[in-house]
Amino acid sequence: MTDVVHNTYGASAGFVTTQRVELFDAMRPLVLDSGVELAPIEVAYETYGELNADRSNAIVICHALTGDAHAAGHHGDPTRPGWWDNFIGPRKPVDTDRFFVICANLLGGCMGTTGPSSVNPATEQPYGLRFPLFTVGDMVSVHRALITHLGIDRLHAAIGGSLGGMQVLHWAMEHPDEIGAAVMVCATSRLTAQNIAFSAVAREAIMRDPNFHGGDYQRIGARPDAGLAVARMMAHITYLSEEGMREKFGRRLQNGTTPRFGFDVDFQVESYLHHQGEVFLRRFDANSYLYLTRAMDYFDPFDDMLQAAPKLERLHAPFLVVSFDSDWRFDTAHSRDVVRVLAAHRVPVTFREIASPHGHDSFLLVLPEYHRTVADFLGRPTAAGSTRSARAA
Amino acid sequence: MTDVVHNTYGASAGFVTTQRVELFDAMRPLVLDSGVELAPIEVAYETYGELNADRSNAIVICHALTGDAHAAGHHGDPTRPGWWDNFIGPRKPVDTDRFFVICANLLGGCMGTTGPSSVNPATEQPYGLRFPLFTVGDMVSVHRALITHLGIDRLHAAIGGSLGGMQVLHWAMEHPDEIGAAVMVCATSRLTAQNIAFSAVAREAIMRDPNFHGGDYQRIGARPDAGLAVARMMAHITYLSEEGMREKFGRRLQNGTTPRFGFDVDFQVESYLHHQGEVFLRRFDANSYLYLTRAMDYFDPFDDMLQAAPKLERLHAPFLVVSFDSDWRFDTAHSRDVVRVLAAHRVPVTFREIASPHGHDSFLLVLPEYHRTVADFLGRPTAAGSTRSARAA
């Protein structure tokens, strides 16, 4: 139960800066799954480690709903590292002494990559809800354009947690030759009704906020902060486990033992959620929240198995699928479903359910069994290239 | 799994009207747990069946968070019966051929009993957040005044689901001589951190709504509908089980099989929640939602066992504690905790976990095993009065 270290350990990827590149242009726009064309697309990304001479050691990290490009290292203050700094760095599970690691902000995000809060060059106004709807596949299209820009045509691995894992699954299914190995952590191939329900209520909270103004709040100079904070607080309940919340907060009061009997924050769990809501407002855009959660709702690559089966049969990259036993956002059943379909199509798949009381958020924590499992998996030969020779030898 | 009948069965309690009575007055106000005095208190209630000559066959039904006095029968349209009409009526589990059944809207409610939406006689304005904070115990004080008004000093039984069961527990512990038997369905002796978290986010949704105006929305002629609808939608997710939602909605779309790829309602589960939110706005007051959920947060009668133990030792009324295996709002662990404490103090307690895929809402449905269990329990001799003679015989 206490087999977790919240601090990072070992060496960090060190000082890094977020880079920006403009991909696609009016002549060669990104054609979204909807058929709509989008260009240009600015992409914010970071890299850690060195690309080797044959460009075979690249790993892409796909981030989750509210992540960003700043996965590891620091921007000047080593005490404020990237969101997955405990996972990426020298001698860490994603070892930057061996791998060239890339993490880009998602299409539709609000941390440097083009999204609904970006200015539409055609109108010189923020897109708002005029930004085109996009899919998990479209997110992957932008990642692919980025690695092409970096001169890489095949990844040693793609790794992602939650929505990140959904991108990894899509990428591997649609472009199997580009992915040497795939790691999906606490992810899913499709949301359940309850998953969709939570996302739907979060969106309602945002869209019903009178300051939402049909998504044009930026133009008007307003912010749907009430709705966005409520969305975030509710989501946070699903990121922690019941057990984890009980251990962390129980029924303890914020100040001593005397209840204040009012509607202000009194229980510690209220204070925690309140803080999470406030911090989120400083860094996230409400429209991005709508677009990204909606893309998750619609993702369902195994829905039509007549279409999926031939793709899965061309897929030889080994998969590592990891779940956490207390995760109820995407519980182990989600991972088992993915494993079942992959295995049925002879995709080499390793599955681990890790014991952790920390719910969905476990994927961001230092759980030794989890980190060892990923490190071991990445250390193994991959499906093609040098690996195939190794097998042949 | 399909062992459930959604329709009512058998005879109804028939045509009923909601009655109103004013209890307490300036000379003899209700002294709340906080020490604040409140008077007068109007109470809306209904009764079903006939009180017998020795006034020994009365049963009080304590309703849950958003219930009202209209538990059974109908107000003129037999197709729109009370909220527990499948449970209360001739030859139903709470058999109105045998029992005189009383159901009153809670203190602090908004369905006829004095609450924050009532007009404060001192100011001739709605109370709003000037309504005093109150506890589950204060709700019980009002119920007790009502039965005194009806000439009853001891109940054959008190029955309640969810918050209703919490009132039953309080009543039995504090006034053991007044309760012949106690039925707690999907209830709890205290909310967990996760339970409080959901309530806290619901309150945040209401209080952050710009139309809330610090609780004075009535005076201003506004309504925090956005916040209240979001609160209700979120709560509804916790009333259904994951499994129940999957069976009822799955990933089915509202209109055919072609996704609309937008932010309007598309999945059936979204449509359901949307509808629940809208219907709720017509019947519930946002301030009542704040007060009632806050009273639930603070309820914790077993917190101080030095105080609780002597009360439990004076408690001889048999208890029936019922949970539902798919309920995750107040799961079986909540009921087991209540049972453990009661049994440790030699309170006669029967515990049943009923199999049902319908989550917390199961308590409102016709599940034969559940209904049989309650009917059997109420048919048994109770702890005192005629019963005690029967035992002695």
Summarize the structure.
2 copies of one chain form a homodimer. By secondary structure, chain A is of the alpha/beta class.
**What gap, in angstroms, lies between the N and C termini of chain A?**
44 Å
Largest sheet of chain A: 8 strands, mixed
Q: Cα-atom Rg of chain A, whole angstroms?
A: 21 Å
> Which consecutive residue ranges of chain A, at least 5 long each, have pLDDT under 50?
1-8, 381-393
Q: Supply the CATH class of the largest domain in chain A.
A: Alpha Beta
Oligomer: homodimer
Indicate the proportion of strand residues of chain A: 5-15%
The count of helical stretches of chain A stands at 12
Secondary-structure-based class of chain A equals alpha/beta
Overview of the molecule:
- Two copies of one chain form a homodimer.
- Residues 1-8 and 381-393 of chain A have low confidence and may be disordered.
- In chain A, the strands form four sheets. An eight-stranded mixed beta sheet of chain A has the order 1-4-8-5-11-12-13-14, sandwiched between helices.
- The first copy, chain A, has two domains: 19-190 and 300-392, Alpha/Beta hydrolase fold, catalytic domain (Rossmann fold, 3-Layer(aba) Sandwich), CATH 3.40.50; 197-293, Rna Polymerase Sigma Factor, Chain: A, CATH 1.10.1740.110.
- With 393 residues, chain A is α/β, with parallel strands linked by helices.
- In chain A, strand 13, helix 10 and strand 14 form a beta-alpha-beta unit.
- In chain A, 35% of the residues lie in helices and 14% in strands.
- The interface between A and B is large, with 54 and 54 residues.
